[in-house]
Design brief:
The protein is mainly β. The protein folds into two domains: about 170 residues, Immunoglobulin-like; about 550 residues, Maltoporin, Chain A. Helices cover about 5% and strands about 55% of the residues. The protein has a 22-stranded antiparallel beta barrel. The longest helix has 10 residues. The chain is globular and about 95 Å long.
Length: about 850
Amino acid sequence: MRFNKQPFLGLALTASIFVLTMPATLAETDEKTTSTIKNLSGLQHPPSNAASLLTQNTPQNSVVEVGEVRIQPGKEGIEVILETKQGDILQPVSKTEGNNFIIDIPNAQLVLPSGNTFSQEKPIAGITEIHVINLDANMIRLTIKGEVAVPQVELFDDDTGLVFAVKPAVTAIQPPTPENPTPEAQPEAPKAENQEAIELVVTGEQDSYRVPDASSATKTDTPIRDIPQSIQVIPREILKDQGTIRVQDALQNVSGSTSAGSYQGFSEYLSLRGFSANLFRNGIRSYQDYGGLIETADVERLEVLKGPASVLFGDAPPGGLVNLVSKQPQTQPFYSVEGTVGSFSTYRGGIDLSGPLNDSKSVLYRFNTSYENAGSFRDFVNSERVFIAPKFQFALSPKTTLTLDGSWLQETRTSDDGTVAIGNRPADLPRNRFLGEPFQNVEINVSNFGYLLDHKFNDQWSIKNSFRAQFVNLERYYPIRDSLDEETGDLSRLSYFSERRDNAYSLQTDVVGKFSTGAIKHQLLFGFDYNKVTEDGTFGDFEPYSSINIFNPIYTGFKYPKQEILSFFRDDTLDKYGFYIQDQIELTPQLKLLAGGRFDIFEQNRSTRNLGEEKEKFSQSDSNFSPRLGIVYQPSQNLSLYASYATSFEPSFGTSRNGNGVPFKPETGRQFEVGLKADITKNLSATLALYDLRKQNVTVDDPNSSDPNDSIQTGEQTSRGIEFDIAGEIVPGWKVIASYAYIDAFVSKDTSGLEGRRRDNIPEHAASLWTTYEIQKGSLQGLGLGLGLFFVGDRFGDLDNSYVLPSYVRTDASVFYKRDNWRASVNIRNLFDKTYFNGSEGGRLGVYYGQPLTVIGSFAVEF
């Protein structure tokens, strides 16, 4: 790169690159910033104004035309490009006003095809807006609005024109990289022929574990501090540092998230605030129920929304949702290869590729793939999985992008129900003992295809339309547990085989508009979604299968026929229509309101047939209205106080009926929450929340009926608690994420004798701490250490509270080394080989062990 001396920002340079450093705290003024600039080596006092600079350096009566303005991700962030044939003669001048960095470019004019103004909101965390206009007939003004303070600036000059490196204030998140993309950056438009460019490289300040923005709670890119609800984000940085590839493992960093093991040893169960939680991908519900472990190879971050979320996402349990945000295509070529080797014959490899497919960079791609072959600390248990996820992004115009994405997962896994309970504790058996048959397995095939069309009408209004088709094929083949004789240890079993084909189609349209009514600002969202879910299932007879003794197991290895035992057939169809509206209202810069409502319509149809019998049909229609209201008060820039009310609902099962044959109403949830969110330092944030969450219309046994199958809807389950989360960087190189949760979850209304019982698998107290330190200077630069402590209190393993899963503290550790474009690490889980239990399946016949001492080594290189 050729460097030239260029006057810039009102400064005559004696060097071709400089940095405008930010104030150490938000309270520091522009005067301090100016003082910092003057103290930089080699800088001289500038001309007093733009006119003087113009007179000294720029040919008179020569107006340079800028024909295009583009924003695109770059190697160090995002590039704001002003295309022109005469970039070498432009002499920018700057000033600061509040949090705004303003650059005036004399003797220049915008001549854009779409009009003589350009604006992009939230191009990167820490930058609120980039705005380019013709200030007058002889000058362009570029305004970069910082979220909390004035951005930083560097100047580079090469043959292509001027390059300004602009960094957000120090409270911004980690800069976009191939591992941390900027999804909303405007794609690059075709470059005009023979044009040079003024290029601004905008980067974010390294904040590691702290993420200030999330889209899950509002379907808009809103700072978390402005949302009246507890939201936690797990960036990929944490997944890499912890060596984590499972969603359940990642959620151990979030307060209120509890593990209940899995469903029959092959799928993940998500729980928040004492209730189950739904899984979403990029804002669309994932219907991968009972469909294997969730793949994270193409996941950029996890957004965890706690509490009811039906106002925007429809039917959902009251615990909340986990939204997986995918990696996005990059404009710069990027190639990454990673390999992992671990205990119990675990091998995993992954490839991540991205870049442009044409010279104009209007077509981008991203391709993620992984392969895993693993054993287990459990006898006979192993798994193999292959995952592929391609993605393409097309810049149809400067304001319109189309993203196509798909994924395919093939997995074969041994089904493992873990151990059993005897008396009031899990059975005292060896941790590796397997109580199934060596041949039993689960085969899963999950395919997804979808698109996202994003169009901006203007600076105020935009529309997003998305579609996803999901196909899940699932085959389960294993003897299931029936009953246990706790005295003799004989575990009786039944043969089981099933095939399911689940298809789901989701269509979603959101319109977002910004406007003002007087001094009050609004961000209005209204939308519609439609979901169609079908299930075609066949099931075999539950015939007696030989029992196994848990104290002295003898495996028969008898493989009963699959197709020959099929005897029951079931077809389900569910159509869901949702209409919603939300308004984010800024009454003053310190006072914000959030109000919304949603109306849903459901149509369910089910048909069942036993072999040789007539088909039975059921149908049911439901509707529900879900309101939401919240308020945020911000007495200072680093503190938010909030309160909210939110609701949820879930339609009852298709064949569920009262004793008089009337369908049940949907189960509902409602939550009151108050809390505060604070930026403790420029890179460290915390959230404290108190909530009262109740699930109502719970179906319970009818005490006035002689039929044990009769039920009524009078039950209620309550979860009340306190949560604390903190994440960020304490000092450069020292990162931390920690949480604490107190959960009082119990049956508050019941007619079957369960009233007052604690919810199963929910500890009263839980806490987590994960911290790493990376040496920043010297010969050991790049060397780092990590330590994790995870505490889970006593829990009941079933709703009858008949046995206890003991509390535990698990210790994890890591050592890693980063150098240039490669990274090597060793992660140790359960450092002291503590025997503990993740959870149970809700009864006494499925209790799941946690991992013993496990060592995982990984190596990754980027090109």
